[in-house]
Amino acid sequence: MPSRPSARTLALTLAITATVTLAACSDGGTGGGELTYEDSPLSKYLDAVNGGAWDEERFAKQQQEIEELVAACMADEGFEYTPVDSSQTMSFGADPEERNTEAWIAANGWGMVQTEEEMEAQQAEAEAYVDPNQPYVESLSPSEQEAYYATLYGTPPTEEELNDDGSYEYSWENGGCNGFASHEVQGESFWEDERFAGLMEEMGTLWEELPKQPEIVELNRNWSECMADAGYPDLELRWDAQTVISDQMNAFWEGQENPEGPSAEELRELKEQEIEMALADFRCAKKLDYDTTQFTAQFALEQQFIDDHKAELDELVAAYATGE
């Protein structure tokens, strides 16, 4: 199976993309302002490192390059491998602009809860997919299959190599043909470079600083009052609304006598609750011009970070610019 990176690796990865993700999580566009996550000064500054904006076409192209290299690597090791068409198995989901409309939210909420019908449709789609390598793998003996997957993904870590949470330090050198091919196409990972470890960690603090800004404190207070007026009291921060739904989803499977999980009726009721709460959130955010205020504060923090760490950022860009 594919390797699982450590929590530290994931944290550093998130640090470099924190500003974009944070902006996206704010449902950019719902506030009615002109600023969007694409205006992020830090993201623009690091475009040379990130290779510019990611879209479905670019992602699919890179994945196809990786698949071709995997096939060549497996052949060198004596195994057959047919490159997998990633467009059949991956999707970026709904367009952000579409998700940030009242019509989409009225039909989907935040897109968190899936009804039984939606899950069945997804299952049918998954079953319709045919892995082009499955017939070949099934033709191998059990020991040959074990060697096949070890060659493809690397040898699974031992219990001693696992962290308490089940993660471990991933290294592409131990990731089999898949690790080799990904490294060959994507290059070195700057978030693994110890030279920039401190920079990555400081970048991650932007997450922590944004909610502390006076204008954001006031914004969340006004949002909380608006949500209370809509029938949802005791919500202090905007993401608290989604937490209410996610906690109820988790409760369906935690300590429940029925091991099969929630019933179709329970899922439908929770979906309706999600949609109603998401609509209230959307309307309050629009009324308060939430995103414009948040983006303004966020981008000010980013610009200050750039000003304070320009030399280090320039060194990172010079070391890892993709040239795209």
Structure in words:
The protein is mainly alpha-helical and 324 residues long. It has 16 helices and no strands. Helix 4 crosses helix 10 and helix 13 runs antiparallel to helix 14. The protein is globular, with a radius of gyration of 23 Å. The two termini are 31 Å apart.
Contiguous uncertain segments of 5+ residues: 1-33
Total of helices:
16
In percent, how helical is the residue content? 55-70%
Q: Could you say which structural class the secondary elements and strand pairing correspond to? A: mainly alpha
What characteristic shape results from the CA principal axes?
globular
> What string gives the helices and strands in order?
HHHHHHHHHHHHHHHH
The major sheet is characterized as:
none
What is the CA-atom radius of gyration, in angstroms?
A: 23 Å
Strand content: under 5%
Structure summary, number of beta strands:
0
The quaternary structure here is single chain
The average pLDDT score comes to 82
Distance between the termini: 31 Å
